[in-house]
């Protein structure tokens, strides 16, 4: 029986890398993102390279009707989803006091509400089948006092831990993946240039994804990706909040 994964934010960056690694493992795929043309190009690449079944589902997850279409796909018992990758996201680059409140709301809906809604749609079928995996792409920023983005990612981490604890006994793993800086379009859209971050601070996208999928397979509830960030993670709680905020580290440690 072929397993099937649904990946949000699949058209670029970590999302596209998730699709490639999942296809290499032989999973059929449902690709979700706003840009239908890019999704079709990626689908053609995956079908050609891996000979896997690929379904394209264009959707803007901040639009309620589109979100509900994706939720309905997750709940479709006739074509079940075995793995859900909640990866879609963006960040508001402006400081909180100067940001547009509509953009803040849109960001929180995409980062916090969307993973909750999609997990809620996927879990009943996974419980009935006695198996399933949900991987939520959070961020190491979710452990920092670093603004609105970090607050949203903190909620994703907490939700993941709660769902993992509750549904682990049902054969379902919920994993929160906490990357640091990864050179993708995510940071380009924020205006964060590679030269603005020390070279040693960038993690490789393929490594981040492989570590996330490995954690899901091993039924781990949380994983900090990349050895450099794993070394830094225990130190973070020891640093005073005012220092982290003062140096702007929160904006720097984001997916």
Overview of the molecule:
By secondary structure, the protein is of the alpha/beta class. It has a single domain, classed as NAD(P)-binding Rossmann-like Domain (Rossmann fold), CATH 3.40.50.720. Helix content is 48%, strand content 14%. The protein has 10 helices and 7 strands. The protein has a 7-stranded parallel β-sheet, sandwiched between helices. Strand 4, helix 4 (101-129) and strand 5 (132-137) form a beta-alpha-beta unit. Helix 3 (64-74) packs parallel to helix 4 (101-129) and helix 4 (101-129) packs parallel to helix 5 (148-167). The longest helix is centred in the middle third of the chain and has 29 residues, at 101-129. The radius of gyration is 17 Å and the shape is globular. Keywords: Oxidoreductase. This is Short-chain dehydrogenase. One of its GO terms (molecular function) is oxidoreductase activity. One of its GO terms (cellular component) is membrane.
């Amino acid at each position: 029986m072929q397993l099937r994964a649904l990946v949000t934010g699949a058209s670029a960056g970590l999302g596209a890398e998730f699709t490639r690694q999942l296809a290499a493992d032989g999973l059929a795929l449902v690709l979700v993102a706003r840009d239908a043309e890019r999704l079709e190009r990626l689908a053609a690449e995956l079908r050609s390279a891996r000979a896997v079944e690929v379904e394209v589902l264009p959707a803007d997850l901040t639009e309620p009707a589109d979100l509900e279409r994706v939720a309905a796909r997750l709940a479709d018992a006739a074509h079940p989803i075995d793995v859900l990758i909640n990866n879609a996201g963006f960040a508001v680059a402006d400081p909180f006091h100067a940001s547009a409140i509509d953009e803040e709301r849109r960001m929180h809906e995409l980062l916090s509400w969307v993973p909750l809604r999609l997990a809620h749609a996927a879990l009943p079928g996974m419980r009935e089948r006695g198996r399933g995996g949900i991987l939520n792409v959070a961020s190491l920023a979710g452990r920092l006092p670093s603004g609105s983005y970090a607050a949203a990612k903190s909620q994703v981490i907490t939700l993941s831990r709660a769902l993992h604890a509750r549904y682990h006994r049902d054969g379902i793993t919920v994993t929160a993946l906490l990357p640091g800086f990864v050179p993708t379009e995510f940071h380009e859209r924020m205006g964060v240039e590679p030269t603005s971050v020390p070279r040693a601070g960038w993690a490789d996208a393929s490594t981040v994804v492989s570590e996330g999928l490995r954690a899901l397979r091993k039924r781990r509830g949380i994983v900090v990706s990349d050895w450099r960030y794993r070394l830094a993670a225990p130190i973070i709680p020891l640093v005073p909040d005012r220092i982290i905020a003062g140096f702007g580290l929160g904006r720097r440690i984001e997916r």
